[in-house]
Structures are given as C-alpha cells and as structure tokens.
Design goal:
The structure holds three protein chains of three kinds.
Chain A: H1 2-20, H2 24-49, H3 53-79, H4 92-114, H5 124-141, H6 145-166, H7 172-200
Chain B: H1 2-20, H2 26-51, E1 54-56, E2 61-63, H3 65-94, H4 100-122, H5 126-144, H6 150-185, H7 194-199, H8 206-224, H9 232-239, H10 242-271, H11 275-295, H12 301-322, H13 324-356, H14 367-370, H15 372-385, H16 392-407, H17 411-434, H18 450-464, H19 468-481
Antiparallel strand pairs in B: 1-2
Helix pairs in contact in B: 1-2, 1-4, 2-3, 2-4, 3-4, 3-10, 3-13, 3-19, 4-5, 4-10, 5-6, 5-10, 6-8, 6-9, 8-10, 9-10, 9-12, 10-12, 10-13, 11-12, 11-17, 12-13, 13-15, 13-16, 13-18, 13-19, 15-17, 15-18, 16-17, 16-18
Chain C: H1 3-34, H2 44-53, H3 65-84, H4 93-97, H5 100-120, H6 124-155, H7 160-170, H8 176-192, H9 211-214, H10 220-245, H11 257-284, H12 293-314
The chains are: A mainly alpha, B mainly alpha, C mainly alpha.
Chain lengths: ~210, ~475, ~325
C-alpha cells in the first residue's frame, strides 16, 4: 500500500516534469519513465491484491509504453532530426500553478468517488484524474507536433493508471483493444509527421492554424 | 450467423481491398462487399424484429430494436455511399488528385470504417464500444487526409487530436462506470456488459455515475460534434473526399450519439433524476443555436452542410434529452431521415463540386441548366433537410417541436429561431447554386444519381407515410430508451 | 527548564557558530577536488574571518547608521535561528518559544536587512543584488513555508522540537509527501544560500552576482560578520533539512551530555556527506539565467504543494 502510494506520487511528479520539460528528446525519456513507473505500480497492486490478470496488463504496459512506443518515438525523432529541438515554453511558473489548481480540482473530484474503491488503491483515483488533466494542460501548452503526441500518450497513461490501479484492472479484451488503438494511433501519427513536414517543412503546429471560420 | 457475416464481411473487405484496392474493379468490389454487408444487416434486422432481442457470442454482443435499427441504417448508407463513391473516386483519380496507392488506402479504410461502426453498434461491452469508436477515428483520420494537401493535413490533425482527447475522456467515463459496477457485478468481466449493467442500474452508485456521465458525454459528445466540442467537424467534412463526408455525417455522428444514449439509459436508471436529460438538452440546444448562426458565415459548400449536421445532431440530442416515448420516437425518426438526407446532399454536392472544380459556393452556379439531375438532387435534398413538408425531416421536427411545446416550453422559441436562421442561411446559398448562370465542365464519368434519389425517395416516403411495421419498431426502440 | 535543556540549547548555538565556517570550507574543498584543482585549506574560512576582524573598517561616505547595523542584525538573526533548530537534540527551550513560522520570519528579517544595507550606499551593483535577492526570497519563502506546513501536517504541530520528536517516533517509512517536501526543501536551500544553479558563490562577474553583489561595499569586521552569517545560514538550512528528513541520532529530552555527544557525531557525519553532495551537485550543474530562477522556485513550490496535497489525499482528508 505504501509502495502503491509512493509510485502514484511519482507518476504525478513525472506528469509535472513533463509539463515543464522543454527538450523533446527528454520528453520522450520522461514518458518512458512514466510508463515504467506505471508498470511497476500495476505489479504492486497485483501483488498486494493477489490479482493475477494484472500481471498481464503490467507486461502489456511495459512492452508498449516502455519499450515499443519510446523506441518508435526516438527513431522518429532521429529520422526527423529533432534530437536537439526544444520547445519555446513561456510562463512555466504559470503552468505549474495552473497544474496545481488542476490537481486540487482532481483530488476534489475524486473524493466523493474514491470512498467506494478498494481498500488498497482507494486514493489513487485522484492521482489518475490529475494525470489526465495535467496531460491535457500539457497538450494545450505545446506548439510542436511531437510533444503534443507525447502529451496524448501521457493522457493515455493516466487512463491506464485509473484502469489498473483504481479499479484493479478492466477485462483483458478491453485492455488489449485500448492498447491496440494506442499503438495504431501512434503509428498513424508517425506517418503524419512525415506528411506534415513534407508539406510545411517543419513540425510547428502554427502552420496548422489556417482553417478558421471566415 | 448473420452477425458473423455482418462483422466479418467488412473486415474481410478491408483485407481484400488492402490487397486489390488499386485494381480497376476495386470500386465494384467495394460496393459488392457493402451490398453483402447490407444483406447481412437486413437479415439480422429481420431476425431481431421477428424474434426479439439477441444476446450472443458469450454475451459479448447484444442486439435489440434500438441498435438493429441503426445497423440497418448504417449498412444501407454504407452501400449507397459505396455506389456513389465508384464514379466519384474514378473522376478524382482521372484528374490526378489521387494515386492508386491512395485509392487502395481509401477502399480498405472504407470497409474497416464500416466494420468499426457495426462493431460499435452491436457490441454489448462498453469497453469494446469505446475501442470501436476510437478505431473509427483512426480509420477516418486517414480518409480525411487522403488528398495530402496542407488543408487536409490540418483538418486530419485537428480531427485526430480533438477526437483523440475527447474520446479519451469517454474512456475515463467507462473506467468510472466499471469502477461503480464492479462492486455489484464482480470483476469477472460482466461489469462492462451493457445488459448486466442495465439489470442492476438502479443500484449503481449515483455519485460515481453522475461524474462518469459527464466524462462520457464530453467524450462521445466530441464525436457527435456537439458545441462547443465541434471544432473538428467542419474541417474534417470539408477537406476529406466527399464520400467520407457523407459517411461521417450519415453514420459516425449517429453511432457516437448512440453511445451517448446507451450511457444515458444507465445513468438515468442510477440517478433517479433527470440530470442527464437536462445536460443533453442543454448541449443540444446550444449546438442547434450556434450551428445555425455559423451557417451564415460559410462559403464552402461542404462546410455549410457540415454545420447543418451539427445543427441536426443538436436537435436529436435535445429530443433524446427530453425523453419519453414521443420524443424518442421523433429522435429516432430524425436520426434516420437526417442520415439519409444528409448523405444524399453530400452525394449531390460531391458531383456538383467536381463539375465546378471548387467547393466555393460563389463559383458554383446554374446546376439546373447544366445537369438537371444533380441540380434537382441538391435542391430537393436541401429542401428536405430544411424541414419542408412533405419530407420526413418535417415530420420528425414537427414531432420534436410539438413535444417540446408541451414538455419544455421554454426551449421552443430557441429551437424555432435556430431553425428559421438555418433555413435562411442554407436557402440563400443553395438557390443561386441551383438556378443562376452556369459555368461548369463535363464530368468524365457519369455521376451516380441513384443513391441521391433513392435516399430522397425514402425520406419522402417517411414524411408521407410511415409503414405500420416501421412505426411499431420505432416505438419499441423508443420504449427501450425510456 | 532543566539543566540538560540549557546545555542542549547552549551546545546548539555554540556548535552552529563554530562549525558553520568549517562546513563552508569543507564544501569548497570538495568542490576543488571534484574540479581537479588544488584544494584550499579546510580552515581557510576561519583564517579569512580572523584576518577581516583585525582590519580597519572602511565605510562609504553615503553610508547611514543602518548600513553599519545590518551585519550585526543579520548575524544575530542567524544565531537565534541556530538556537531554535534542533541540530543536536530536541530539548530546546527556545524551540518552544519560537516555532517553524517564526523561523521563516527570522530568515526574512535577515534578508530584508541585507537588502536594505545593500541599497543604502546607493551603488548600482548593490541595488541590483538587493532586487534580485528580494525576487528570489519572494519566491523561495512560500515554498519554504509549504515545506514546513508539510511536516507540520504530518506531525500535527508547528513547534520544531515537537515535529522532530513525532517524526522520529513515526519511524522510517517511505512517505510520498515527505519525499516531495524534501526535494522542494533542497531546491529552496540552494536558492536561499546563493548556491548553483541560482547564484554562483565563486563568481567574480558582478553582473551575474546576487549575494556577492550585495556585500561588495562591506569590509573588515562587517564583512566578517556577513560572511559568517552566510555560513551560519547554510548550516542552519542543513540542520533544518536533517531534522525533518533525516532525524537520526538526535538527542531527545532529558538526556545527558553523552547523548549530545552522540548527536554531534551524527551531525558531523551528516554534514560531511551533505557538504560533499552539495559540492558534487554544484560541479555537475550550471548556473541558470536569472530569468529562469522563478521557474526553478516555482518548481520547488509546486513540489511542496504537491506533497501537501498527496498527504491530504492519502490521509483521506479534505482536498
């Protein structure tokens, strides 16, 4: 239980770290780390609650979020020559404060729900909601395609955390479906990057703001 | 058996067209698979109507009157769109807008999209429902960016990010639903099955379900295109190929709304209050109103009708929000006629834009003189979508309005105002396009007009006379929604 | 008030005053080793202090009496602070009189006088340093307060001896909110003590200075007191960190001189390690631009609040 709490806090911390990280390559590393902590927390819940099917979902997380997707993203970054690309993030302190506000909101939102949860993992739902909201905040603040996608995947991490820890695992078929969707989505986005760059010669999203109401 | 065919055929079609999608006969193959799917859908519909609801496949699939009606509609529109896309995509290829590889992608993704739609409709598992809708996003993203132009890439990116984020909220809602249900149903997999949830909905924890519904409504509502989550919709409609616009408007929005209604049934049962209904009404009214005013500012014909889709989705959402047998009946009817009419309009618009070589309405003129059938198709379709009698849209809107007057009188003026504004906006645009002086070119392939008039005929029929069997079926479905 | 309490109190203040320059010397020596330089003697700070104390003070013509008072006030503040932080034992009579929030007040008073003194003469660098110092302080103080609230929430008191006693009684357990608070505290420590990455204590470039810019006008005994106070501040912060996050070997109430001696040994060991760690960190990191400092401190604040929030979440309290 202590371990789950610690890992949950670590996940939250990593969400904040991603919010403030400027370098895209480091962002991917943080994402991989978050995936690893996620897998660890799933194992911790599985061990303490004696739920065997959670080991599979931990393995799934490990394979997808720690190995496959970061590998894919790193290769993409290398192919697109983005290793040293940084994001110009203004007002990080403001983002931090906004993030704190979101965390308070998330904890408040989770409070009436979480008392119906399991003994071991009762309090982690608030952290899961906070992770989701922080990833959203991160996506709003980003102007580069790659970091928006990392934000999207981090959002997914929040979901998986809610599914595995707070509710102690969804049915396996659903988890596989979700994983498949995420994987396919990431691949499609990877294809997209090349198309966008071919079209605009950069991955700045400000090029993608021409369609407006006129 | 029918179900296996219904789901297997599009999947098989997707695989087959991934191999042969660029061959000269690929369009026919596409239509053939769609036809077979339609036959399977029809057979399934007949079976459910005659034999009552089905729960099959280890309880993973559940078909009742409500979703089988959408299955029938989806497979029908899937078939007619496939017929329409045959000449349309040929013209695009001839004009060099598409390479054979893209055409293969298009055909394959079209079938896979149909598969995700049908899976979303027939599954009994709320988790699979989410997975199918997310997969629908993925397949259509590739279709929206088919032309690889700057604008289409932007539209597809926006579509992916907004819908991806939106639908992630729906996943969270689903997780919360599971969270609440697991206490009652145990972790053995039954806790996400809609039939099981429906059976125990009265005992589900209200607070959890209320919060879950907010997430679900925001998530699936993004896909329905409810204001203020609608930003992706006009772009995706305008920049993708026209058959894709037709299936987005005619099918995807319906299926997303279906998901919302399924969730609403559960949440209303758990909450013992009308909160979900009120939320649906609020979102619906807002969508109707905002879309109606945005209609005035459109120059692109596909954007115009995309906003019209938002408006109509708003009307249907409002009707489902009111609830009760009459409003639900009207909402189901409106879903049907909107889907048919809107896809017919997109078929006509598709050919009209190909003729004019532009989607800008200022440059599309005199359709009636150059190609009377397309002109009439667009004119009649627009009149139908605007709710003119004797088309079916009139009947459903009339029902919705009268119900609103009786049950939610405050909303009626808003609805009437929005409908009036929308009428003016669309009519003033369509009229010169159809009548004015022509300057169009000949199409290299004869356009597919059968789908247009088949749809409009159906809508006309539904406006004049709803067969007793069909009405009974609608009533049954409306009763299920509660 | 027992005799042993008085003994602990006196020992705390005397140890702090005596050992603070040694800590600075140790950090400098470690840093020199890590950077492959010839290390300065460990006792160099003492010699510098002695040298400065024997010199005649030179004052700027425009200096007011305030300018001369500042070193004494600052040094006094730090000495009092040393008296209320449980460094050797928790049986501190002064600790009952002034709690953790008063400690923050003491630090703030010292900072304010430093800034006033720096601006008093009216030189450009002085006021530049003072303004930067106030900026840092303005951001670091809330973070420090949040850290203190964190530990206060866990132990249910703001009196430092009580906090430490309860934390010791709780035993060692991985507590997420304490971990967050510890991280935030280290960041505040770096910022408040003019260490990298906020300020470079070894810099000779006036434009990048913060702390050094403020003391440019001081000489002789005034400078000695200020340097000594700065060393004391670092020492105090280190002891504060040990007390909250590493309360090993602290003598508890009603224990004799042997326990104090044991506490002193522990303290020396911890300072040895912490000094080396600080030197290592400073060797590895680069100075942030001044405009990035708010970011750094916002991070510290965020961490501290996060610790507070997780505490509330996991204890099932209101959030």
């Amino acid at each position: 239980m202590q371990l789950v709490e610690l890992l949950a806090s670590l996940l939250l911390l990593l969400s904040f770290a991603m919010l403030a990280q400027r370098r895209i390559a480091s962002l991917v590393n943080l994402f991989a780390l978050q995936g690893a902590v996620l897998a660890a927390s799933t194992v911790a819940v599985a061990a303490s609650a004696g739920l065997h099917h959670l080991y599979y979902s931990a393995a799934l997380t490990l394979a997808l979020k720690v190995l496959l997707l970061p590998y894919f993203l790193r290769r993409l970054i290398a192919r697109l020559d983005l290793q040293w690309d940084t994001e110009t993030l203004a007002r990080i302190p403001m983002q931090m404060l906004a993030g704190l506000g979101l965390v308070i909101f998330a904890f408040g939102l989770a409070q009436p729900i979480s008392r119906f949860g399991h003994e071991i993992t009762r309090e982690t739902l608030g952290i899961a909601i906070a992770m989701v909201l922080l990833s959203l905040l991160m996506m709003i603040g980003r102007r580069k395609a790659v970091s928006q996608v990392v934000g999207f995947l981090a959002l997914e991490n929040g979901m998986v955390f809610a599914a595995t820890t707070a509710t102690q695992g969804m049915p396996m078929v659903v988890e596989f479906g979700i994983a498949l969707d995420v994987l396919v989505g990431a691949v499609i986005l990877g294809v997209f990057f090349f198309q966008i760059r071919e079209q605009f010669d950069s991955l700045e999203l400000r090029h993608l703001e021409t369609l407006k109401e006129d | 058996m029918e179900l296996i065919a219904l789901l297997g055929l599009p999947l098989l079609g997707g695989a087959a067209l991934a191999l042969w999608g660029a061959s000269p006969r690929a369009a026919e193959l596409n239509a053939l698979f769609s036809l077979a799917t339609f036959v399977a859908g029809g057979a399934l519909t007949a079976r459910v109507i005659l034999g009552g609801p089905l729960v099959i496949g280890n309880e993973q699939f559940f078909i009742d009157a409500f979703n089988v009606f959408l299955v029938a509609l989806t497979s029908l529109v899937g078939l007619t769109t496939a017929l329409f896309s045959r000449p349309y995509m040929r013209i695009e290829t001839d004009r060099g807008h598409l390479s054979p590889g893209r055409l293969r992608l298009y055909h394959s993704m079209y079938q896979l999209f149909m598969f995700t739609m049908l899976l979303a409709l027939t599954t009994n598992n709320m988790g699979i429902l989410w997975v199918a809708l997310e997969a629908a996003t993925l397949t259509t993203v590739l279709l929206v960016s088919l032309y690889r132009t700057a604008a289409s890439l932007e539209a597809a990116w926006k579509y992916f990010i907004l819908c991806g984020v939106g639908i992630a909220q729906a996943l969270f809602g689903t997780i919360l639903l599971y969270f609440a249900a697991e206490r009652l149903l145990g972790a053995s997999g039954g806790a996400l099955l809609w039939t099981h949830l429906d059976a125990v909905k009265g005992q589900l924890e209200p607070t959890v379900l209320a919060i879950a519904f907010v997430f679900l409504l925001v998530g699936y509502g993004t896909k329905v295109g409810l204001v203020p989550l609608h930003n992706w919709l006009p772009d995706a409609h305008a920049e993708g190929p026209t058959p894709v616009s037709a299936v987005l408007s005619g099918l995807l929005l319906n299926v997303a709304l279906y998901a919302v209604v399924r969730c609403k049934i559960l949440v209303v049962g758990a909450l013992h209050s009308d909160l979900p209904g009120r939320m649906l009404m609020g979102f619906g009214l807002l969508s109707v109103l905002v879309a109606a005013f945005f209609l005035w500012r459109q120059r692109d014909v596909k954007r115009l009708f995309a906003y019209s889709s938002i408006e109509h989705m708003g009307i249907i959402t409002f009707a489902f929000g009111m609830g009760g047998p009459v409003a639900n009946f009207a909402a189901l009817l409106h879903m049907t006629v909107h889907s048919l009419t809107k896809s017919a309009i997109f078929f006509a618009v598709g050919h009209a834009t190909q003729k004019a070589g532009t989607q800008n309405m200022e440059d599309i003129r005199g359709l009636l003189l150059r190609s009377p059938t397309i002109g009439w198709g667009l004119m009649l379709g627009s009149l139908a979508i605007l709710g003119m009698p004797p088309f079916g849209v009139f009947a459903s809107e009339f029902l919705i309005l009268t119900t609103a007057m009786r049950e939610q009188p405050w909303a009626t003026p808003i609805l009437l105002l929005a409908l009036g504004v929308a009428f003016g906006a669309i009519f003033r645009r369509v009229q010169p396009m159809v009548f004015g002086e022509p300057h169009a070119r000949r199409l290299p392939h004869s356009p597919a007009l059968l789908p247009v008039f088949a749809h409009l005929l159906l809508v006309l029929m539904l406006g004049l006379y709803i067969p007793g069997q069909l009405a009974a079926w609608y009533r049954l479905a409306a009763g299920l929604i509660g | 008030m027992t005799l042993s309490a008085l003994l602990t109190q006196a020992a705390a203040v005397v140890t702090a005053a005596a050992l603070a320059p040694l800590l600075v010397g140790w950090v400098n020596q470690c840093r020199a080793w890590l950077q492959n330089r010839t290390a300065p003697p460990l006792l160099l700070p003492y010699r510098t202090l002695r040298k400065l104390l024997h010199k005649d003070a030179v004052l700027a013509e425009s200096a007011s009496p305030l300018f001369r008072a500042v070193p004494y006030v600052v040094f006094g503040c730090m000495l009092v602070a040393a008296g209320i932080i449980p460094s050797l034992g928790t049986d501190l009579p002064a600790g009952r009189a002034a709690d953790a929030i008063a400690l923050v007040g003491l630090f703030a008073t010292a900072r304010m006088f430093m800034a006033l003194g720096a601006m008093d003469v009216g030189t450009a660098f002085g006021s530049l340093g003072a303004r930067r110092e106030m900026l840092i302080g303005f951001l670091a103080e809330p973070a420090l307060l949040m850290v203190l609230f964190n530990v206060a929430l866990i132990s249910g008191s703001t009196a430092m001896p009580v906090i430490v006693d309860r934390l010791v009684a709780q035993g060692f357990a991985v507590n997420p909110s304490l971990a967050f608070a510890a991280l935030a505290f280290v960041m505040v420590l770096l910022a408040e003590n003019a260490r990298l990455p906020i300020d470079n204590p070894a810099t000779h470039l006036e434009l990048t200075m913060i702390h050094e810019a403020m003391v440019l006008e001081y000489s002789a005994r005034h400078l000695a007191l200020i340097e000594w106070a700065a060393a004391l501040k670092l020492f105090n912060y280190a002891c504060l960190g040990f007390a909250f996050f590493l309360p090993l070997g602290l003598a508890s109430e009603d224990t004799g001189p042997t326990a104090l001696l044991l506490g002193a040994t522990w303290l020396a060991a911890k300072l040895l390690l912490a000094g080396a760690g600080l030197a290592l960190f400073e060797t590895l990191s680069a100075k942030l631009r001044v405009f990035r400092a708010p970011e750094f401190l916002a991070m510290a604040f965020m961490l501290a609040v996060l610790g507070l929030l997780t505490r509330l979440l996991f204890s099932g309290g209101v959030a």
